[in-house]
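user: Please supply your own:

assistant:
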Amino acid sequence: MRFMFIVKSAHAGPPTPELLEAMHKLANREITAGRMLDSGGLMPAATGAEVRIKDGKLSVVDGPFVEAREVIGGYAIFELRDKEEALASAKEFMQLHKDLMPGWEGTCELRAFAVP
């Protein structure tokens, strides 16, 4: 099964050097094992835009987005056996944040890809 992990947080700053190093080690392990297919961090919301449809009208809103409490900071795409393996992987990733960036709060959302 293919899963996307979406990391969301209200934390505005970048990860600590220790957390970055630990995430790179974890990512390299997962890539070598053939489980991680892609990953990446995202620039701050202030550098982005949203294209919206509301009341039948198309509009573009430049970031930052006032109503955003949490923003997507990064993502990863995995090929895993099942949801249980995905949960174990996400928990290991989030544990790095807990251990190496005290005070950080966020969410790792797991979503399975739809298959035809």
About this structure: Strands lie at 2-9, 36-41, 49-54, 57-62, 71-79, 106-112.
